[in-house]
Amino acid sequence: MSTIVVRANRSWVASALPPILFFVGPLITSMVPRLTPLVLALLGLALIVAALCRGANWRVLIEPNPALAACLAFAAYVFVNALWAADLGNALGKAGTLLGVIVMAFAASSAVTHLDEKQLRRAALGFVAGAGLGALYLLFELLTGGAITRAAMNFITVLKPDSAKHLDIAKGKVTKLSLAEFNQNAAVLMLHFWPGLLVLGMLAGVARRVALIALFFLALAVPIAISLHESSQVALVGSLLVLLLAWKWRGPVIKGLAVFWCLCFVLVIPLDFLAYKAGLHLAPWLPSSARARVIIWEYTAELTLEHPWLGVGVGSTAALRDQQKRLSPAEQPEGFVFHRSTGQHAHDVFLQSWYELGVVGAILLALAGVLVVLRIGVLPFVVQPFAAASFAAFACIAAFAWGMWQSWFMCAVGLVPLYLRMTAAAVDGSLTESQSTGSLPSDRRQPIATQ
């Protein structure tokens, strides 16, 4: 009897659980971005277990390739770099999270290909449904000033905030919530954008396909556009441009993305000095958040030149800033919207890698990014423009927004290859002529989501 139960459980994990998690994953992460580590762990493990239950060799799941080797080399250096960080325990934790995300992203992406055609169709539709519902949730919260979030904070003790950042509290109740509280949600939504549109592009029926693509586009683009997260808005415009260019010139655009990724590391420090010298931190036509970033970038760039080769250590930015504050408060000249300091982090992955990891870390991260971009070329032909757009969206967000060691952000980025590989596997199993033409399937071809 116990053997039958175990086999039934294995069968359920192998067949039903992955499609369910492809629906729940984007929905939950759109609503509560800080749960992305849990979602990545659950979805990744479900895919790996499903592949093993289908007879896959575990060695195949960690398929040796240059991109994986480069990412692991970067993770290894991060562990070494942690030895001279301001907080060794915190630095080792960040390095461990990075390694876990890399291994899970590559292994689970390989495991996706072991799902059968029926599972892939369900997973594809589930992903679109989850991402769409998550977008509607964010739109409601933005239009109502965070009504659901405020209610949850007021009625669930564990969710009560420890500080009054981004909110107003009166008589122990949250009365007002800044829309900046939903910036993480907007960033996660942007990472769901292109995989979802790719799935809908493979549906049967031209009229239905066009209608659903337009609906999904608006469902995600509108909350991103009305949010306060300018980085996601830049990512939306920039990635759309990349998609249009890659649709016509796939190879050159993919290579161009690799070159652009490297140039971001080469030019970030000179551009930070140039922006500050041009007085952009005082420009009244720029949003205050952008002016503050110019100040943070310039000051961080100055400190980077003091430790150019190996950096100050993983995750040391905030700790070193606090140490400096205790010695002497940071100055804030007249007209500055932010005092001259590094901030909690650099708000730029490229600059943060230079400051904390030095030349060695910047080179290793640049190499890892290049090899990841070039792997886009092994995806089905029609998938490549969407994958290129997804990478462009990530690069835009990374250049202006979050710290590179924030666990939710690392895991949100780690989920993107799973979503893309899932849609690529679904497309690869249903395309015939479109693989050579690069066009979306016509009504006469077998769709991925109608059987």
Give an overview in words.
The protein has a two-stranded antiparallel ribbon with strand order 1-2. It has 451 residues and is an all-alpha fold. Helix 9 (183-200) packs antiparallel against helix 16. Residues 431-451 have low confidence and may be disordered. The two termini are 35 Å apart. The protein is built from 18 helices and 2 strands.
Descriptive labels:
2 domains, disordered C terminus, two-stranded antiparallel sheet, 451 residues, globular, 18 helices, 2% strand, mainly alpha
How much helix is in the residues?
Answer: 55-70%
Radius of gyration: 23 Å
Give the low-confidence spans: 431-451
Shape: globular
Question: How many discrete domains?
Answer: 2
Give the neighbour order of strands across the main sheet: 1-2
Q: What is the ordering of alpha helices and beta strands?
A: HHHHHHHHEEHHHHHHHHHH
N- and C-termini, Cα separation: 35 Å
**What class would the helix/strand composition place it in?**
mainly alpha
The averaged pLDDT comes out at 89
Beta-strand segment tally? 2
Q: How much β-strand is present in the residues? A: under 5%
- Assembly category: single chain
Counted by DSSP, the helix tally is 18
Biggest sheet statistics: 2 strands, antiparallel
